[in-house]
Amino acid sequence: MLWGVETKSVSPVFVGRTSEFRTLNNALDRAGAGEPQALLVAGEAGVGKTRLVEEFAAAARRQGAIIALGGCVEIGADGLPFAPFSTALRQLRRELPEQLAAAASGQEEELARLLPELGTAAAREGRRDEQGTARLFELTARLLERVTAEHTVVLALEDLHWADASTRHLLAYLFRTLRTGRLVVLATYRSDDIHRRHPLRPLLAELDRLRTVRRVELGRFNREEVHRQIAGILAREPDADRVDDIFERSDGNAFFVEELAVAADEGCCAGLTDSLRDLLLVRVEGLPETAQRVARIVAEGGSTVEDRLLGAVAGLAEDDLIEALRAAVNANILAPASDRDGYRFRHSLVREAVSDDLLPGERSRLNRRYAEALEADPTLVPADERVTRLASYWYHAHDAAKALPAVLDASVAARRRHAYSEQLRLLERAMELWDAVPDAVRDTLRPLDYAEAYPPCGCDPETTPLRYLDLMAEAAVAGRLCGERERSLKIIKRALRLLDEEPDPLRAAWFWVQRSRLTQALARGDGWAELGTAQDLVRGLPPSEVHAEVLASAANWSMLHEPGPEAMAAAESAVEYARMVGAHDIELNARLTLGGLMVDAGDIETGLAEMFEVKDRAMELGVDAVVARAYVNLPSVLEGVGRSEEAARLLREGVHLTRRLGLPDAEGWVWGNLAESLHSLGRWDEAAQAADSAQRLEQSAKPRAGGSIRLACLAHDRGDIAEAARRLADARTYFGTHDPMPQYALPMKWVAVGVAAAEGRLPDARAELLAALDTGLPPGTQRYGWPLLLAATTAEADAHGDPASEPGRPEILERIRTAAKTLATGVPVWQAYDLWLRAELLRAEGRLEPDEWSVAVEAVETLGRPYDLARVRFRLAEALLASGAGEDERARATELLRLVDAVAGHLGAEPLARSAAVLAQRARLVLAPAAREAEARPADPAEALGLTSRERDVLRLVAAGHTNRRIAEELFISPKTASVHVSNILAKLGVSGRGEAAAVAHRLGLFPAAAGEPLAAG
What we know:
By secondary structure, this protein is mainly α. Helices cover 65% and strands 4% of the residues. It has 51 helices and 10 strands. The strands form 3 sheets. Strands 2-5-6-1-7 form a 5-stranded parallel β-sheet, with helices on both faces. The protein is elongated.
């Protein structure tokens, strides 16, 4: 290594860039206050981007910031996956070893995909999953947030125009999601390289739409700045004519100013053409022949070439190599690398010029020598770069027989790092090479080594040669996982055409399953026709992993679209086949589907037990994807059968688990489901926060749509109809129209009916209902069907007496009665909806029956759903007052309306509160206690309610939303004793559930500071 070499052509004076430097310093100040900053520095090649970053980094370091610098690596035309992030994190680890270790704790093996030093190679061998990339990105963002909680860090990524796709995607993710931490993320790129088809262009367009990302454009120097730069380089005042000449020829480009100034000072300007290439090569050609040869070798080796690798390729005696390197360094052509024992060109423009000057045969010969040297001694380069660089060297050496195995090795390395874009590119390169490789070489390759996407069915993977279709299968999955769905679909269609010529039912069925997934993802259908083809292909074949996957996919599709006996049969078969072939992931997923279908079919406890067992088993085996799905599906099923408290407890666990695993899609679903359960439990503020959290995460559209539906429901119940309509429109946009599923479509119909009715558009409400009924309410959709029928009936009942609404009402009510007969009533919540609907249907016919409403109230009282209970209590009060009420009925109606008013006020349910007040006014009832009664009451309302001191403490914690176990821990009593106290409190307050008890405590002002625990994402 050479140190302390004079770099004459670099000006010691930092020229210009005042406003740009101010922008960077301002970002550093804001980051120091805990607000992450994102900046893009753009400028043409040679304009001074690196110098600006170096000066800023030095200034930031003087202020105590930690600098982590990473550059995008160019090897031929191949970028190393995540190279700048790996380099930067490695520097961060050196600077803050303890802090980074603590921040990565528990996720070392996953984060080792970016920073191999954190984990072991064996830990990265596991099969990929759908959320692998998202998990890695989320954990990286979390790592940076934790490290920068106490330390200001500048993460600088240079040469983004060379970035691999995985690096671009991770950078975009960080720019979108970082919300906390003392962090500056700074990336540079050549603006003049970004042509219309450049892969960086879509990312720049996306980042332009983010208000959090600032772009710094570096322009060329003016004449005065060129004068100051030349003076700094020469250490004296330059001649004015020379300044004019250099300014004119360089056009203010800082790097060209340097080159021209040095060339002129050394007397090399005479005869120099205006060609930029000649300008860049003039000092290289002035080197001794051996130094020129070394420069050409370095130019073809990549962005940086290690010292030992260079020695092996150059074949020079050690002293001769050192002298050649010294000459190139002294001439400021090469420079020692900062992050390893090696060399790089001082500016990439010079390297590109030298590389472009190579003859074609010379280039391929140099790549062969690099490849042979690396094969002979793999320790010549860092371990995490070895396979990628070897693949690039052999490919550019134009040796297909050597390149194919190397490219396949590199594709496996990319897959293990979740760098699926790079894996896809390498697999496409392997398919390009395939026909040029001799059979003798291809026959030595094995699917077990290179292809894991297609399961080994009916063959021995250790002896069966790798097939072209194996590469296509691997590429199809890589394309789907990296978002290149069109490329993936094209590969699948080609594969299916090949399989038409050489039939292989199992392999064809597998490709049809992949096509089904892509059809849905590309919004071109629901994917059932493709799954049907796959089922036809495997029918009658012996058990296999493909067979199990086809059945599991069909069962899951049916659960979401057409739950019923056929879906149950498919799920049972999938479980059976998966067990036969030992496909544990498929078995667990199929069992989870089966459990949900069993609950829908009425076998509730058995189905729930199955789902709980799957959750525990998946956690035991570490199957993260199934664990995450269990924390989404199981609480949703619990909510569907009315066990909202249990669902909410599981969902809170799920939030922490999916966040820890870095699964934003799953976390989004969990937040959306938690919002639904909290809504049911009467904890609406928390429900709104949970729904907001479901939308704030970086995730795909459907989880975000779940949050929109929940916000629409909350807005509707609170009377903000415009907001409900807006959120409904958002949900419909997110879900699209290509793949309707009852679990999404029916709740949206519920909101649409409610919005139309509230706006006085009864015909539109009827049309929404009829559209849903015409589509049908399949078995298992009762949790969505009952609320929809009730909303439509309520709209009809509220419009009763309006002559304009009478036509068509009998037919609508008959359709509702007919539909209700198809819905299950096997659990208390469904039974309560059935009784509620019966009473509401009578009201829609003008008959207010107190007895019917009393039965409905009794049924709803057991559910622990305060808003629903308030609604049926209001209808009972209305029915009592309409029946020619005596004093007893009026007294009961008064108490009912007081409870309704308390709950509505607590929840912010304005329409219900308004209706209660209007009804009380019409009936001349006083909801607030009379003044004299208030004066006679004890000063402490809790005493008036007959609550003991201990019961008051328990009620305070109930109002804060705590469970019996948490109450027991707070008060140092047993959970059983806490349960007894809660029962006594409910009896003394005359309420049926904890939510109502909290509402009464709120209305009476018992605990002004009581509040539920806040919820937030991230």
